[in-house]
Structure formats: structure tokens, C-alpha cells
């Protein structure tokens, strides 16, 4: 009363004025372009496609164009066209691959549902957030080539999750090999020639036909 | 003669949104949608006698995107990230309310650890929302940004926690039907615990800055009084209702989740004015801190998701459910009608901001423009939720 | 050299005057007066123009630090070029005049406002020899010139053809007229005690020290301290600063009378606000804080204009600090505060000052009585009026369920 | 609180002319509802609010549901004894009937005074075109004011006795009711090169191809 409340407030602001010069708990500003915040591992931005081998990204895509993410995507920003032919995946099994895989990042809301529903660990969330462009139409529509990033990159941004995924995939692969071996043993009478995996065909990246 | 810019080209009718033909000294002012204190694109058509308000009609829908229609065309899971965008300050509680409605609709059990984590996140969200509100309200009262900046500084710390848990600061998309998406690590819990310990001193300082300030007392006390009877009848919920002295908190009334296990008190107002609404929120934050401490202490080990819950191909049986929780702004509820399909047949959001606005005119009549601004601020609206 | 510098009338002290005389000495005798006046005007414009520029930066920096952020720091070293960047921005922005506006008045309002707010600087004694116009009725002139700002603000609000601007104009009129009264009344005791309306003589009346270190400034008397406080509160209101920034209340009236102004006209309003603030602070320094006088005889070797500037900056810092802390009053509370609190207090303070000057001869134990009476005449009405003013509003206790 | 069946019987006793039906909810939430007829709805609502044993003082949630016309196949099985003395035959008779379209308003009532609820009320319109008027419950619960306006705006149900029935979320000049199931959004999208063919096709249709840059010969 009688101005004591006002004086108390003035003391608080004075304390903060002084504190902002020496107390990092008060002065929390980061001078952004020079100092970048440390992103938490869980941070997510836009999805990317994981490939196993950086030298042959299109040939080692994990995506098998099952289109589950396309169906589940709430804002419907994923567009997939299945390939007509098949290519061997990481386990050597012949799989369909996405001939067209596009994400409209102007529509994408970074919800991570595509990642959760993907049974093949083929789509993961990226951490690149400086993605402003001057063309809000074509430049924000990312095609297969722009989306694909190697597994090693995935390890650098989400190390824990990547390790889990790799462990799981290795286990799956081993299980598949075990199974194949068991099957081979069962069919021991007929020495089965191991199916020679077709050489990965380097595909020309089919960019989307952009409308006029 | 050239067509006036105020003429509708198709009908030729004079287009006007604000009347200029009022009798006597009355003046009609359109406050918003472009106004610094309408918390977004909210608009009030205010009839003034001098500076005294004699009529006030809220206009909204500028942010309307038919959220409910979107949800009807999306799977149950697909609506979860959209709920983040309702009240974009409180995505965690929105998630929870929606998850709770679906869990009631499909009868999904939630593991105990997930319930605890939900309580932790809901109370952190309450801290976040009430801190923001206090900052915004002070800004509306004419402070030059200082309380708002302090509030945002602390809010950022909570958002950092949300980010490192869910991956996103505001659009968390964290809760799932039958649990939560990620299990918080021990490191995360330690950070959250530290934040809770540091929050009490921050609240002390924030209160020292303004709660006893004579100008603030004069501005807020006795302004925008709401009676308990009208508050109940008009469906007002949350801190707004409790500021009128009605003891109604769904955390106690419904006792959902694991709330019955915690000891906490419900602060109640007496006058139902702006000051009470502000103070109730400050006191609620202190109670939230108490809940958080208990939740950290009692957090059990175990699964975070019900293993029986399906992520893909989720189709609840025919029926409907209304699930509600005590959000920071009031009762946030979701009404779901299922026809057995993968998408809800009907999905309705009971938005507390929207319904709390019903009594805006009653609160503002007889007050001045300056009061209308702080009354609106004390109602605590987020236009993402009002307009849906 | 040092000995020369220690005398009150050192070279440094006379430097501005010498500089003026050197320039005017080059001209014929008959032009001297005109050239001297022009030089003074240019010096005031340049000095306070620069002060305005850096005051805006200082305000943003200090507000920033108080709010735990750096403030502008990208333009130039530590953001020191920010005011010039702002100036360029204001100059290059489109000047929008609303369709229904009164174009002449809309243009005139900022010009008049700046012109009028500059008038007050003419009679402020910035230093021992530094006063532009030596007027016998300087105090009267200062406040008469200052009153015209109300007209300009009303012109701006009226001419904009905007309902918010109109509301702001009405608020500004009511507020500025109400606060003229306590502002003037809080000055009257100084005039009464000093026995003059001339600013230089008022400063001279505050010269000298008791015991060599307690200056005879008015602020160190009970009525002077009260008068200083009242003057500063009224000055806050007169210069439309927080917590009395009702005319341009951002959260209520968007920008009040400035809503429809853009570009350099908007900058002119800003300039006028800061000029007004500087002029009123300068007046407060002159009337209550001993003007250009040094606080101690030992510090007299520092030139008088430096002391004036230092005192001025401290007061301006106070303005900024208050702005960073306080919420805004409502119009009716503002009026109540002026008429029910400030005006009675200033009137009582006038009586207090009269009593003080009548009892100037009391010595010994009577001196104690004099102080006690004068102090109680300040404190008791403050408490009583303060309690009646804030009756009914107090922090509350809450019940829990 | 009494069960909904008891409540229904009590209402039926108090309002003999009223048609109150218990609408069961098969989901695990078990939030069953009372379907009221339009003529007595407001009187019953007032009773529910004021009855000392119920005191349903808070109408939390008001929403509309659209049930468009639907073809329902009813299967009736009749056992026909075989005239030849064999095992009786089961004859399945399929009748197709058209379930008429209707709009429904749902009110969720709670009692703050007695801490119980929800009691769900449902009101059904005659059809989806011309008989869409229902009594407004705003005079009983003020909280229905904006929510009924919203239902009017999005579903087109007209509430009789509402103090200020205007559009609330859509703008005043808007024609349709967008939450109806058969609402089709106009195709005046802003043109964006999304990879989604139908959107693209629609956009192309709406925005004619840009004029050729070369000046056309007259």
C-alpha cells in the first residue's frame, strides 16, 4: 500500500537489470545465427527417407512403397507411386520400391505419424530447420532424391533411436537368414541355388511433372 | 457515378460492419480483428457512450478451419496432431483429453506409468499456460512487456522440456490411445524436477513484481465481476469458474487418471473479478508444483503404452463417448461418435475458451474500453480453440 | 593548469561561450546577436537531437536488459547506429494519410508538437553561462509553452478521422489539462522560496553547501522533496509516459492519436515526446536539484554543464525504469489521482513551503521543530490521502477447497 | 443419482404427453442418452435443471450430428416347416428400407452442485431439409447460446427461441452448412502445385491456363 507495491516492483526490475549481465538463468538469449541452440535428440522437423548406402541412395532405399504413411498422413502431404519392377531390399528380398515419393513440406505439419506407422523404419524425422526458400511452390515440394539421406546421417541426429533401429533390423535379418537356412536344411535333398539378387538398377530420378 | 469502395459489387448493398447511424452520443468501434490486445484475430463490436461500453458483440471465426470436418476425414490417430493446434499453448492437455475420449469410446486401459507421465505433463502445461496468461494479462494492463518477458522466459524452459521429450515445443503430438508415445528418461525427469524446484522462486519474484502493485489492484479489483450462478449457467469452467467461488475442478470431481492419489488444494475466489481470476491462476500454479513433486516421487516403473492398443487400423465399435479433463483454461472435452469405421463419424471439441466467451458481454457492460481489454485477457482465450 | 581548472570559472567552464564568441567575433558587430542566437539554437537542436536519438536506443537497451534480453545490437557496434537506421527507415516509409482525414491538420499536428516542445529549452540554464534566453519570467514562459502540446495532440487525434485516435485525443485533453494544475502548483513553492521566476536566479538561490558537502538544493528540504516527487509524477503524466500513457495506450487504443501516422510524422511525435521528457526533467533539475550546481565544493572543477547533463540523465533513467515496471492507470483513476491526491498535496506543500520560508530564522532546538513540522506536513497528508485513494483495493487472501 | 431408466420413467410420469426414449450407447463409455421430443424438450430441460434430486445446472457440451439418408437392409429369418415333413427351412427375407435422413443435437448435462453426470439429451429433427427446427435450450442454460449458434451455423438446425441466432464461425454471407456429411467444398483453392492429382485437376479447372505471352492476332 501507499506505493510500497510499486517500490517492490521497481526493486524486482532493478534486480533483473543487474542479473541480466551476470546470471545466465535470467539472460537466456542466444544470438541466433552465430550461436545455434543445441537441438535435443528427440527434436523433429520434416521427414526424410533412410537409405542404407550413401553411395547408392536410390538403390538402397528402405522404403518399399507400401503407402501406409501416405494413407495415415493427417494433412495428406505424402505422395507415392509404386514401381512396376522389383529390387532387392536390405535382406536381399525382392521388393517394390517407390518410383515417386514426394512430400509437400508446405503442407507437412511435422507430426511424426508417418514415422510411427512405418513398419520398415524407412522414414524418419530430420532436424534441419533452416529450410526457408524463395519459391514457396516447387522448392517446398521435396522429391525422392531430396528426401533420401543415408543411415549414417540418421545416426548423427538421432543416435539412440538409430542404434535401436539398427539392432532391430539386424535381428530381423538374422532371423530371416536363420529361417532361410532352416528352410534350406529342410529342403536339403534338393540343393537350392541361392536366389541371386538382381543387381540394383540405377534409376533415373523421376521428378514430378510440375504443373504450369 | 463510381462505385464506392463500400459497395458490394454483386448486390449493390452498402457494406458496413460497424454502424455509424447510432443515436445520441453513441459510437460503435470495431475492436479487432487487428488489435494488439485481442489475443489473435478476435473481434468485438463495441458500442461506446464516451468510453463506457453499452453493447458488445464478439465476432469470431477468422481462424476457423473446420477442425471437426478435418477429423471426420482422418483416422482417429490422425486427429491427434490436429488437437495440438486447437489451444496451441496447451497441446499436452488437448492430447490427453482426446486420448481420454477415445479410450472411453474403445475401452482402452492406460498403464500406470503413462498416467503418471500424463499428470506430469498436464501440470507442466498448466504452469505454462497460467504463466503465459499472467504475462499477457499484465501486458493488457499496460506493462511495457516486462512481466510478459519474464513469463516467456520461464515458459521457454518448459517448452524445452517438451521438446526434448516429444520432439516439438508446442505441437507435441505426444499422447496415444492407451499411453504415451515415448518413455521419459531418467535424465529428462531430473531436468523436470529441477525446473519444478526453480519455479517456486520465479513465482515469488513474479508476484513481487506486480501482485501488490497499487495500480494493478486499482485496475483489476472490482472489474468484470462474474456471479457464481451465471458462471455455472453459462457453462464457464476452469479458473474462471473457481474465481467466482464455485468449487469445481474435474481433477477432484471426476478424479480421472491418477489425480485422486495426490494431495492438492483448489484455490477459490470470492469476487469473481479480474484480480481473482489472476490470483486463482497464480495459486493454482503453486498447487501444480505440489502435484508435480508428488508425481515425480510416485512415478512407477513399467510400460508406457498399453501393448494391446493398436496404432494402425484402429476401428472402435459403434457408439459414442464424451471425455473431458480439466485443462488449464477449463473443461476441455471431446465428443466422439463412432460408426465402426476407421474415421470418427462425428468428432466435436468442447472448447473452454469458446464457451467461456459466452459471458464476455455481461462482464464488460458498464466498464470502459480499457477494462474490456483486461476482462478479455482474464478470460484466457486462444483463438485456435475458439474458432477451431 | 590544475589550479586554473579548479576554479569555478575555468576554461572548460567557459568553453562553449568562448566557442560562440570566436565564431561571432568573425562577423560584424551588428550581426553578433543574430549569429549568437542562431548558434545557440543550433547547439540546442543538435545536442537534444542527438540526446533524443541515443535516448531511444538507451531506452530500448535498458528495457531489454530489464526484460532479460539484449535489446538492439545488430546495427553498428553494440547497436550504436540503430537510431540512424531507424531515422532512415522512418524517412523512407510511405506516408499514409487516411481518406477521411483533415489533411492540413494531419500534417500540422506533428510539426506543431515538435516546435512547441522545443520552446521550453530556451530558458533552461544548462550551465553557469549557458542559457539561451535570460528571461525574468522564465518559469511562467516554460509552462505556457508546454501547454500548447495538448493542442497538437488533440489536433492529431481529431484530424486522423479514426475512432481510436478520437478517443485518444479526448483522453489526452482530459489528462493533460488535469495534470497542468499539479505540475504548476508543485513549482509555486520554489518560486515562493526563491522569490523569482527566473530560472538562473532559482539555480543561484540553490548554490552553496552546508558543512561543505550538503548542497542547498530544494530537494533536501521537506517541502522540496515532496515538491520534487509531485513534480515528477505530474511530469510523467504531462509527457504521456507510462504509467500515464493513456493517449497512446497500445493495448487499448492501438496507438491512440498516432494510429494513423506513419513514416517521419510518426518519428516526429516520438521526437516531441522525448523532447518534452527532457525539457521537464531539465526543469526538475533546475528547480529542485540545484540546476548545474555540483553536489560538493570539491567537485566544482567538473564543468557545470556536465553536472546538469548527469542529473538530467539520472532523471531520464528513472522515466525508463518506471516504464519498465508499471502497468497503466485507467482514465477515471488517472483523474481521481490528479484531483483527489496530487492537487491537495501540492496545495498543502505550498503552505508547507510558506511556513518554511517564514521560519528561516529559527535556530538550535527550534530548527528541529521546524523540520518535524515540515516533515509531518508532508507525511501525514500523503498517508491519509493515499489511504482514501486506495480504499477498497488491497491484496486478498484466498480460501482453498 | 438415479439410473437413466428411472429418470425416463419419472419424466414420463410428469410429462405424460412427452415422448422420451432411452437411446442406449453400446460403447464401453456407456453414456446412454434420453431422446426427447421437440415440443416438450424445453419443459423437460427446465425440470432437469431445477429438480432437487438432479440439479443438472451445467450444460457442458452441445453438438450436432448429421445422419444422412441411408439404405438399411433388414434381414428377417422365418422358419418355414417343410410341408414334406423334413427339417424346417429357414427363409431369409431381406427387406431394404430407406432410413430417413435427420439431424440430431446432443446436450451433455452435468451437475456441479451434486457432482454427477453426464445426462445426455438428444433432439432429432424431422428431416434434413425443411423440418429442421428444434427448440432452443438457451433460455434454460446460457452455455448453449454460442454452441447452438455453432450448430446452426455448421449443421443448419434452426433453434426456436434462441435470442441471437446468427452464424458464428462462418461469415454472414456464407450459404451452406459445412459440417453436413454431404457438404462439398467449393473448388476455389489457391493454386498450388501439389502432387495430388485431383486437387491439381480441380485447380486447373478453376484457374484457366495463363494466357499465352505472345499477343494473339485479332
Could you write a compact summary of the structure shown?
The complex is a heterotetramer of chains A (212), B (388), C (401) and D (218). Chain A is built from six helices and six strands; from the N terminus they run H-E-H-E-E-H-E-E-H-E-H-H.
Poorly predicted sequence stretches spanning 5 or more consecutive residues of chain C: 1-6
Beta-strand segment tally of chain C: 3
Number of helices of chain B: 15
N-C termini distance of chain B = 42 Å
Q: What is the strand content of chain C?
A: under 5%
The topology string of helices and strands of chain B comes to: EEEHHHHHEEHHHHHEHEEEHHHH
Largest sheet of chain C: 2 strands, antiparallel
- β-sheet strand percentage of chain B: 5-15%
Structural class of chain C: mainly alpha
Describe this structure in words.
Chain A is of the alpha+beta class and 212 residues long. The longest helix of chain A has 28 residues, at 159-186. In chain A, strand 2 and strand 3 (94-104) form a beta hairpin. In chain A, 32% of the residues lie in helices and 17% in strands. Chain C has 2 domains: 16-75, no CATH class; 93-358, no CATH class. Helix content of chain C is 66%, strand content 1%. Chain C has a two-stranded antiparallel ribbon with strand order 1-2. In chain C, helix 5 runs antiparallel to helix 6 (138-159), helix 6 runs antiparallel to helix 7 and helix 11 packs across helix 12 (304-325). Helix content of chain D is 20%, strand content 29%. A 5-stranded mixed beta sheet of chain D has the order 1-2-7-6-3, with helices on one face. Chain D is flat. Chains in contact: A-B, A-C, A-D, B-C, B-D. Strand 6 (267-268) of chain B pairs antiparallel with strand 3 of chain C.
Outline the secondary-structure elements.
The complex is a heterotetramer of chains A (212), B (388), C (401) and D (218).
Chain B: E1 26-31, E2 43-49, E3 52-59, H1 67-72, H2 80-84, H3 91-106, H4 112-140, H5 146-166, E4 175-176, E5 179-180, H6 186-210, H7 214-220, H8 228-233, H9 239-243, H10 250-253, E6 267-268, H11 274-298, E7 319-327, E8 330-338, E9 346-350, H12 352-356, H13 360-364, H14 369-379, H15 383-387
Antiparallel strand pairs in B: 1-2, 2-3, 4-5, 7-8, 8-9
Chain C: H1 2-6, H2 11-25, H3 32-66, H4 82-92, H5 103-119, H6 138-159, H7 163-194, H8 199-205, E1 209-210, E2 214-215, H9 222-238, H10 250-253, H11 263-288, H12 304-325, H13 331-358, H14 365-389, E3 399-400
Antiparallel strand pairs in C: 1-2
Helix pairs in contact in C: 2-3, 3-11, 3-12, 4-11, 5-6, 5-11, 6-7, 7-9, 7-13, 9-11, 9-13, 11-12, 13-14
Chain D: H1 4-14, E1 21-23, E2 33-36, H2 41-50, E3 58-67, E4 70-80, E5 89-99, E6 102-111, E7 116-124, E8 133-135, H3 144-155, E9 158-160, H4 197-206
Parallel strand pairs in D: 2-7, 8-9
Antiparallel strand pairs in D: 1-2, 3-6, 4-5, 6-7
Amino acid at each position: 500500500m501507499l506505493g510500497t507495491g510499486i517500490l517492490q516492483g521497481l526493486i524486482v526490475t532493478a534486480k533483473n537489470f543487474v542479473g541480466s549481465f551476470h546470471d545466465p538463468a535470467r539472460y537466456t538469449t542466444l544470438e541466433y545465427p552465430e550461436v545455434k541452440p543445441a537441438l535435443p535428440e528427440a527434436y523433429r522437423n520434416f521427414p526424410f527417407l533412410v537409405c542404407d548406402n550413401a553411395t547408392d541412395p536410390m538403390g538402397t532405399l528402405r522404403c518399399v512403397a507400401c503407402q501406409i504413411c501416405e494413407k495415415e498422413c493427417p494433412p495428406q502431404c505424402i505422395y507415392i507411386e509404386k514401381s512396376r519392377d522389383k529390387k532387392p531390399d536390405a535382406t536381399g528380398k525382392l521388393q517394390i520400391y517407390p518410383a515417386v515419393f514426394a512430400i509437400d513440406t508446405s503442407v507437412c505439419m511435422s507430426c511424426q505419424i508417418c514415422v510411427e506407422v512405418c513398419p520398415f523404419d524407412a522414414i524418419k524425422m530430420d532436424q534441419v530447420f533452416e529450410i526457408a526458400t524463395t519459391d514457396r511452390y516447387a522448392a517446398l515440394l521435396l522429391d525422392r532424391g531430396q528426401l533420401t539421406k543415408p543411415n549414417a546421417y540418421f545416426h548423427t541426429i538421432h543416435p539412440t533411436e538409430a542404434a535401436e533401429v539398427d539392432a532391430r533390423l539386424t535381428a530381423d535379418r538374422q532371423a530371416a537368414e536363420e529361417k532361410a537356412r532352416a528352410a534350406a536344411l529342410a529342403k536339403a535333398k534338393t540343393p537350392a541355388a541361392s536366389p541371386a539378387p538382381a543387381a540394383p538398377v540405377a534409376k533415373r530420378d523421376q521428378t514430378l511433372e510440375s504443373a504450369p | 457515378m463510381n462505385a464506392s469502395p463500400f459497395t458490394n459489387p454483386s448486390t449493390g448493398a452498402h457494406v458496413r460492419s460497424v454502424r455509424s447511424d447510432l443515436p445520441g452520443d453513441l459510437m460503435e468501434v470495431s475492436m479487432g480483428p487487428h488489435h494488439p490486445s485481442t489475443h489473435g484475430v478476435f473481434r468485438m463490436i463495441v458500442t461506446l457512450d464516451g468510453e463506457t461500453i453499452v453493447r458488445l458483440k464478439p465476432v469470431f471465426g477468422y481462424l476457423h478451419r473446420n477442425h471437426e470436418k478435418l477429423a471426420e476425414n482422418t483416422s482417429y490417430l490422425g486427429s491427434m496432431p490436429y488437437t495440438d493446434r486447437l489451444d496451441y499453448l496447451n497441446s499436452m492437455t488437448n492430447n490427453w483429453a482426446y486420448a481420454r475420449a477415445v479410450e472411453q469410446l474403445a475401452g482402452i486401459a492406460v498403464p500406470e506409468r503413462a498416467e503418471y507421465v500424463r499428470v506430469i505433463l498436464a501440470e507442466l502445461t498448466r504452469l505454462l499456460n497460467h504463466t503465459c496468461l499472467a504475462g499477457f494479462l499484465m501486458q493488457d494492463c499496460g506493462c511495457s512487456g516486462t512481466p510478459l518477458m519474464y513469463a516467456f522466459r520461464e515458459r521457454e524452459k518448459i517448452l524445452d522440456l517438451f521438446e526434448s521429450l516429444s520432439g516439438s515445443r508446442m505441437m507435441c503430438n505426444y499422447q496415444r490411445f492407451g499411453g504415451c508415445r515415448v518413455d521419459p528418461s531418467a535424465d529428462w525427469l531430473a531436468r523436470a524436477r529441477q525446473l519444478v524446484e526453480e519455479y517456486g522462486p520465479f513465482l515469488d519474484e513474479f508476484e513481487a513484481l506486480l501482485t501488490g502493485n497499487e495500480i494493478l489492484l486499482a485496475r483489476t479489483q472490482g472489474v468484470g465481476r462474474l456471479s457464481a450462478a451465471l458462471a455455472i449457467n453459462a457453462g464457464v469452467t476452469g479458473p474462471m469458474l473457481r474465481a467466482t467461488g464455485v468449487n469445481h475442478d474435474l481433477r477432484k470431481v471426476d478424479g480421472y487418471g491418477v489425480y485422486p492419489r495426490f494431495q492438492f488444494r483448489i484455490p477459490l475466489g470470492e469476487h469473481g473479478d479480474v484480480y481473482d481470476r489472476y490470483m486463482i491462476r497464480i495459486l493454482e500454479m503453486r498447487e501444480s508444483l505440489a502435484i508435480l513433486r508428488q508425481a515425480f516421487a510416485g512415478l512407477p516403473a513399467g510400460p508406457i503404452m498399453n501393448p494391446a492398443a493398436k496404432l494402425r487400423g484402429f476401428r472402435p465399435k459403434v457408439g459414442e463417448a464424451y471425455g473431458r479433463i480439466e485443462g488449464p483454461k477449463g473443461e476441455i472435452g471431446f465428443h466422439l461418435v463412432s460408426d465402426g469405421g476407421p474415421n470418427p463419424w462425428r468428432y466435436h471439441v468442447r472448447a473452454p475458451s469458446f464457451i467461456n466467451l459466452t459471458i464476455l458481454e455481461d462482464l464488460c457492460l458498464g466498464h470502459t474500453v480499457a477494462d474490456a481489454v483486461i476482462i478479455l485477457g482474464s478470460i484466457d482465450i486462444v483463438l485456435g480453440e475458439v474458432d477451431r | 593548469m590544475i589550479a586554473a581548472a579548479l576554479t569555478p570559472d575555468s576554461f572548460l567552464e567557459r568553453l562553449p561561450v568562448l566557442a560562440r564568441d570566436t565564431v561571432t567575433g568573425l562577423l560584424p558587430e551588428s550581426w553578433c546577436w543574430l549569429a549568437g542566437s542562431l548558434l545557440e539554437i543550433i547547439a540546442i537542436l543538435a545536442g537534444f537531437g542527438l540526446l533524443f536519438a541515443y535516448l531511444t536506443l538507451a531506452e530500448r537497451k535498458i528495457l531489454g536488459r530489464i526484460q532479460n534480453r539484449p535489446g538492439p545490437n545488430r546495427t553498428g557496434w553494440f547497436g550504436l547506429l540503430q537510431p540512424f537506421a531507424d531515422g532512415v527507415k522512418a524517412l523512407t516509409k510511405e506516408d499514409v494519410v487516411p481518406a477521411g482525414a483533415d489533411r492540413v491538420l494531419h500534417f500540422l499536428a506533428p510539426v506543431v508538437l515538435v516546435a512547441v516542445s522545443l520552446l521550453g529549452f530556451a530558458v533552461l540554464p544548462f550551465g553557469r553561462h549557458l542559457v539561451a534566453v535570460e528571461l525574468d519570467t522564465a518559469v511562467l514562459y516554460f509552462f505556457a509553452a508546454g501547454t500548447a502540446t495538448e493542442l497538437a495532440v488533440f489536433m492529431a487525434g481529431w484530424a486522423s478521422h479514426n475512432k481510436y485516435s478520437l478517443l485518444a485525443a479526448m483522453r489526452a485533453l482530459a489528462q493533460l489539462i488535469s495534470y497542468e494544475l499539479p505540475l504548476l502548483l508543485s513549482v509555486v513553492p520554489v518560486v515562493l522560496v526563491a522569490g523569482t521566476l527566473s530560472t538562473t536566479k532559482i539555480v543561484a538561490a540553490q548554490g552553496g553547501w552546508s558543512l561543505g558537502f550538503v548542497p542547498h538544493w530544494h530537494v533536501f528540504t521537506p517541502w522540496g522533496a515532496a515538491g520534487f516527487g509531485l513534480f515528477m509524477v505530474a511530469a510523467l503524466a504531462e509527457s504521456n509516459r507510462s504509467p500515464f500513457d493513456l493517449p497512446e495506450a497500445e493495448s487499448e487504443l492501438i496507438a491512440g492519436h498516432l494510429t494513423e501516422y506513419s513514416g517521419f510524422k510518426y518519428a516526429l511525435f516520438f521526437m516531441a515526446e522525448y523532447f518534452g521528457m527532457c525539457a521537464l526533467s531539465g526543469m526538475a533539475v533546475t528547480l529542485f536539484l540545484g540546476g548545474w550546481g555540483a553536489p560538493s565544493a570539491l567537485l566544482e572543477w567538473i564543468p557545470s554543464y556536465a553536472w546538469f547533463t548527469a542529473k538530467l540523465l539520472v532523471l531520464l533513467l528513472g522515466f525508463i525504469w518506471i516504464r519498465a515496471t508499471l502497468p497503466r492507470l485507467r482514465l477515471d483513476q488517472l483523474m481521481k489521482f490528479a484531483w483527489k491526491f496530487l492537487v491537495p498535496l501540492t496545495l498543502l506543500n505550498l503552505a508547507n513551503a510558506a511556513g518554511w520560508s517564514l521560519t528561516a530564522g529559527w535556530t538550535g532546538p527550534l530548527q528541529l521543530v521546524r523540520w518535524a513540522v515540515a516533515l509531518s506536513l508532508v507525511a501525514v497528508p500523503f498517508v491519509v490521502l493515499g489511504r482514501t485513494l486506495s480504499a477498497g483495493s488491497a491484496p486478498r487472501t484466498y480460501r482453498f477447497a | 443419482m438415479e439410473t437413466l431408466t428411472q429418470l425416463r420413467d419419472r419424466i414420463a410420469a410428469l410429462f405424460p404427453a412427452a415422448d422420451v426414449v432411452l437411446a442406449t450407447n453400446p460403447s464401453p463409455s456407456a453414456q446412454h442418452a434420453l431422446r426427447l421430443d421437440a415440443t416438450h424438450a424445453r419443459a423437460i430441460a427446465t425440470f432437469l435443471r431445477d429438480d432437487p434430486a438432479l440439479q443438472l445446472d451445467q450444460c457442458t457440451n452441445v453438438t450436432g450430428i448429421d445422419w444422412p439418408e441411408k439404405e438399411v437392409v433388414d434381414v428377417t429369418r422365418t422358419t418355414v416347416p417343410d410341408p414334406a415333413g423334413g427339417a424346417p427351412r429357414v427363409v431369409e427375407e431381406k427387406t431394404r428400407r430407406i432410413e430417413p435422413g435427420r439431424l440430431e443435437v446432443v446436450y451433455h448435462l452435468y451437475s456441479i452442485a451434486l457432482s454427477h453426470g453426464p445426462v445426455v439429451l438428444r433432439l432429432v429433427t424431422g428431416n434434413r431439409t425443411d423440418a429442421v427446427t428444434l427448440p432452443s435450450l438457451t433460455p434454460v442454460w446460457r452455455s448453449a447460446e454460442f454452441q447452438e449458434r455453432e450448430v446452426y451455423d455448421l449443421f443448419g438446425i434452426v433453434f426456436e427461441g434462441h435470442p441471437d441466432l446468427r452464424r458464428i464461425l462462418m461469415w454472414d454471407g456464407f450459404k451452406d452448412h459445412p459440417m453436413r456429411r454431404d457438404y462439398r467444398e467449393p473448388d476455389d483453392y489457391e493454386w498450388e502445385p501439389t502432387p495430388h492429382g485431383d486437387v491439381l485437376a480441380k485447380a486447373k479447372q478453376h484457374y484457366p491456363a495463363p494466357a499465352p505471352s505472345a499477343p494473339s492476332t485479332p
